[in-house]
Amino acid sequence: MVWHFIDRWLGIFAVAPHCVEDRFSQFSFLGGGSKVWQSFMHMIWFASLWEIWKERNNKIFNGKECSILQLVDKTKSLSFLWLKAKFVSFPFNYHSWWLGPFTMLGIC
Fold first, then answer.
1. Domain membership flag for residue 8
2. Could you list the residue range(s) of the whole structural domain that residue 59 is in?
């Protein structure tokens, strides 16, 4: 379900594969194959995986878990922070990122 909400946030409407490797390939190449696009999608992919992994550990070791929407919100926050760290002069604000990164970048 997390991937479903990430896709909706990004404006991606495609059938999700069942295999993780296929999901990564689809996620990387949706919308184009430029290096910048792939790098951008990889950053969101890794932020998503990192948040899922942390949530899994939190559930196993602490018995706590957050909702799917909270997990997606954490992914949005982390990906924005990573982007700002990589591109210090990134001209967009967090609110725009939260609503939809590709819309604000003029990609979708």
1. no
2. 41-108
